[in-house]
Design a protein that fits this description.
Elements lengths: L12 H6 L1 E6 L5 E6 L2 H4 L20 E2 L5 E2 L5 E4 L6 E4 L42 E5 L16 E2 L7 E4 L3 E6 L13 H18 L7 E8 L11 E7 L4 H17 L3 H12 L3 E4 L3 E4 L8 E7 L11 H20 L13 E6 L14 E6 L1 E3 L2 E2 L4 H6 L8 H11 L6
Helix pairs in contact: 3-6
């Protein structure tokens, strides 16, 4: 059965034959996509439920407050910090989002689970009773483009010092699997391959939305990280500006290119491969290493051997090799801290994809990389940011990169095929 064609995303040979993307819209107008790898859905023998049965009003429509007064949609805004030049998004509506994980839980249902017919909780985001991978716009976004709202700079209190404008970005959720009690580390490589395709698909499509400057797929995992929903999932934040960490990295990669003619990220990767000491994983397309100036008590950077700027530029083999390496990384991360029973732990972590910016000219000096790290510094200890780190951004590491790498070497071979 012929696959649906999209404006900018192009599937490789594997995805064209083994992954089917089906778009629809949720009841309030948000975009929703099924990414199926089950053969009966890929072939078209079965189809997904496309109608969202919830009686939701348009997400940008006015609503009634507790006193019955009509209140306009409160779009996220952002204000510029004069001391740093950074844009700070402010999304007051996120205060009402459901939290189902951790001590601050405020809801009992799981909006990321597949629909259960007859279940009293009927405010889930997935119309079907099952799925493989799904992607949809966040119901409580930090940034969103609101139709009809001009993307103009205004000033807080009428004072020209304080710039303000709409936080006209985009926030999406990627659910990795329908099993709400599962762990990303336990997913088969074939399912993680579908997740990789979702990252590439959304990068390709969103990069052509006007006003988007940076596309950031990431995964927060674990209650200690602050995850509000325990379901295995990630997100894609699409900023209308270059976020601070990327801005700093671009300054350094551009300056290095102008000074040496080389690519800083490639040269760092090559230097780590030559040193060998901190390389923890390697296959035909990717290498994972603990960076020589690692900040976190557990930190691994993953880079493609070929020069690639964004996830959608990866070829079929690189996407498969990435799924395999990500699986090994998550499993070894869970085994990193010894809890005494030989079983390791469900590691809290952040997996952050750093891609070249969408339009900034400095994208030519950049290179795709994954920065994976955990706040955990022992089986029973969390690294809390001290005054130096939180107040001045001056980091103090509790270990050394060589010790981190040595522990990874105990957990499995460097060459993973």
């Amino acid at each position: 059965m012929k696959q649906l064609e999209f404006s900018h995303y192009q599937s490789g040979e594997y995805a064209a034959q083994h992954i089917r993307i089906t778009p629809t819209r949720l009841a309030d107008g948000r975009d929703f996509f099924y990414l199926d790898d089950s053969p009966e859905y890929v072939s078209g023998a079965k189809t997904r439920e496309l109608r969202d049965p919830r009686p939701l009003v348009d997400r940008f429509a006015p609503h009634r407050d507790a006193d019955g007064n009509e209140v306009p949609y409160a779009e996220p805004i952002m204000r510029r910090d004069l001391l740093t030049g950074e844009w700070i998004p402010m999304a007051a509506a996120r205060m009402n989002r459901p939290i189902t994980a951790g001590p601050g839980a405020t809801a009992t249902g799981n909006p990321l689970a597949a629909r259960r017919l007859g279940d009293p909780y009927q405010d889930g985001e997935v119309p079907d009773t099952d799925y493989d991978v799904v992607v949809f716009e966040n119901r409580f976004p930090s940034m969103v483009q609101v139709p009809g709202v001009p993307n103009d700079i205004t000033h807080v209190d009428g004072n020209g010092l304080w710039e303000q404008k709409p936080a006209a970005g985009r926030c999406e959720v990627i659910c990795f699997d329908p099993n709400e009690n599962g762990l990303p580390a336990d997913l088969p490589v074939s399912r993680l391959r579908t997740v990789v395709e979702a990252w590439a698909f959304r990068t390709a499509e969103i990069s052509h939305i006007d006003g988007i400057e940076q596309i950031f797929p990431f995964e927060n995992h674990g209650a200690e990280i602050g995850v509000s929903l325990a379901h295995p999932h990630g997100q894609v934040y699409c900023y209308p500006f270059i976020p601070p960490k990327m801005k700093t990295e671009l300054q350094h990669t551009q300056a290095y290119q102008e000074r040496t003619g080389g690519n800083l990220l490639r040269d760092i990767m090559d230097a780590e491969i030559d040193a060998g000491t901190r390389v923890v994983m390697r296959n035909s397309s990717w290498v994972g290493y603990v960076p020589a100036a690692a900040r976190w008590p557990l930190e691994v950077h993953v880079a493609p051997l070929r020069d690639v700027k964004t996830l959608d530029e990866l070829n079929d083999q690189e996407r498969w090799d990435l799924a395999s390496m990500y699986s090994h990384l998550l499993r070894r991360g869970n085994a990193f801290f010894d809890t005494g029973d030989g079983k390791g732990m469900d590691l809290p972590y952040i997996a952050a994809w750093h891609q070249a910016p969408v339009r900034d000219s400095r994208r030519e000096s950049y290179r795709l990389n994954l920065q994976f790290f955990s706040f955990r510094r022992a089986a029973n200890k969390i690294k809390y940011l001290a005054g130096s780190e939180s107040g001045m951004g001056a980091w103090v590491s509790d270990t050394t990169p060589e010790r981190i790498a040595a522990r990874f070497h105990e957990l499995g071979p460097v060459d993973i095929g």
